[in-house]
Design goal:
- The chain is an alpha/beta fold.
- A hairpin with a 4-residue loop joins strand 3 and strand 4.
- The strands form two sheets. Strands 5-4-3-2-1-12-13-14 form an eight-stranded mixed β-sheet.
- The relative contact order is 0.18.
- The protein has nine helices and 14 strands.
- The chain folds into two domains: 151 residues, Rossmann fold, CATH 3.40.50.1000; 108 residues, Hypothetical Protein, Haloacid Dehalogenase-like Hydrolase, Chain: A, domain 2 (2-Layer Sandwich).
Length: 273
């Protein structure tokens, strides 16, 4: 990247957020100052609207986001969707069936809600997402019959997260869905599988944002730490791995910075902007 970048796309968990799921004061100050300078700072996250609600006040200066791993491109300031990519109904059913076969926890992301089967939030440590339990309890919607809800709202579901008991169970779900659907699949956390429509991922979300804002992709910097960031890290003008990133992410990136507990985002801003 020779020209000065004009957009910074930030993953949240393990990137903008530290291991305690907070934005450190130093990182928050640096990101706000960058946004005030005229650079577009956008979220590029697997989280949906309900899952970023806890940060809406401190990140109120942000204007745009690619949410649900590209399934929802959103204008934060106007509070309106720019683009929605729902999962085809038959592939949504395939996700539910694959999850049931592995006794997994399913999370449905719609344009506005994060929906789970009633009773499973209390069990989320079993599915390797215990760190998110407080956020789930605050912001998720529980329903008595998730399958019925999914079918009744199929045109609104943009992402399915399947949280498994272990990585082996996730691999079995992945193999099933790869054989029976055209979904875009991305590993996350210890045993989670993110499912979005074919061609929809964090890279497609960033492309839509760049088109909307008139920013060339080559002048966008993307930062992340996990496999669900790989597409956007490769597509952006520069991909940056956090120090806590896995080896696949590190290999895919142009630069590695400090980890999320040591203000790696501040290093990105100081070195590239």
């Amino acid at each position: 990247m020779l020209a000065k970048p004009r957009l910074l796309a930030l993953d949240m968990d393990g990137t903008l957020l530290n291991s305690q799921k907070r934005v450190s004061p130093r990182t928050l100050s640096a990101v706000r100052e960058l946004a005030d300078s005229g650079v577009v700072v956008a979220l590029s996250t697997g989280r949906g609207l309900a899952e970023i609600a806890d940060y809406s006040r401190e990140l109120a200066f942000l204007t745009h986001a690619s949410l649900d791993s590209g399934g929802l491109v959103y204008d934060l300031r106007a509070r309106r969707q720019i683009h929605l990519s729902p999962i085809p109904r038959e592939e949504l059913v395939a996700c539910l069936d694959a999850a049931a076969a592995q006794d997994a926890m399913v999370h449905l992301a719609t344009c506005a809600l994060s929906v789970v089967q009633r009773g499973l939030i209390a069990r989320c440590p079993e599915f390797n997402v215990g760190v998110y339990r407080p956020m789930f309890e605050r912001n998720y919607t529980e329903v008595d019959d998730l399958r019925s809800y999914a079918l009744a709202h199929a045109d609104e579901v943009v992402k399915v997260d399947i949280h498994h008991h272990d990585a082996a169970a996730r691999d079995r779900s992945r193999a099933t869905l790869e054989a029976t659907t055209t979904l875009a699949l991305a590993d996350a956390e210890v045993g989670s599988l993110e499912c979005t429509p074919r061609g929809v991922n964090k890279a497609s979300g960033l492309r839509r944002l760049c088109e909307l804002l008139g920013v060339p992709m080559e002048l966008a910097v993307a930062v992340g730490d996990d496999d669900n960031d790989l597409a956007v890290l490769r597509a952006a003008g520069m991909g940056v791995a956090m120090g806590n990133a896995n080896e696949r992410v590190r290999t895919a990136c142009d630069l590695v910075v400090a980890d999320c507990d040591h203000d790696g985002i501040v290093e990105v801003i100081e070195r590239l902007f």
